[in-house]
Amino acid sequence: MAEAERLCAERGSRFTDLRRRILKMIWQGHKAVKAYDLLDQLATEGGSAKPPTVYRALDFLMDEGLVHKIESLNAYIGCPHPGDNHVSQFLICDKCETVREVTTSALKEAVLSAAQEANFSIRRQTLELHGVCANCKQGREAA
User: Fold this and answer.
1) pLDDT tens, 81-135?
2) Cβ-Cβ contacts under 8 Å for 36 (sequence gap 6 or more)
3) pTM score, whole prediction
4) Which strand (E) or helix (H) includes residue 129?
5) Which of 32, 50, 100, 133 could form a disulfide with 93 if both were Cys (CB 3.0 to 4.6 A apart)?
C-alpha cells in the first residue's frame, strides 16, 4: 500500500479512501476479484458505493498500473511491480482460480516482432494462459 501511495503522490494522482480500500480488497488474495464482489464487500463494511463508482476506481487503479484486468474472467488482480512499465502474462488455474503474473521478455519480443511484421501498432497487450497450477496438479496426481 505504501508503494501505491508513493506512486500516486509522485504522479499527482488522488489516491482516495475508496480507491485505497478497493486496492486493499484486491490484494487480499491471489485470485482475481470481480467488481460486484468488491461492491458486496464494501456493502458489508457499511459502504454505499454504486457500480459506476467502483468501476471508476478500478479504471483509476488500472491507469496507475496498480491492478490488471483479467479479461477472460472479467476480474481484477493486483500488480506485484506497479512502478515498472512492463508487459505481463497471466497463468490462470481453471481449478482453484489462482492467478499468477509472470513477465517473459522472450514472449513479449515475439509478439512485438509479429506485430511489426504485420505493420500493426499494439496499444495494449495482455496474454492469459489457462491451465492447472502446480498445487492443483499435485492434488490431482495424489488422488
Assistant:
1) 887 777 889 999 999 999 999 988 888 889 899 999 999 998 878 899 999 999 9
2) 51
3) 0.85
4) strand 127-131
5) 133
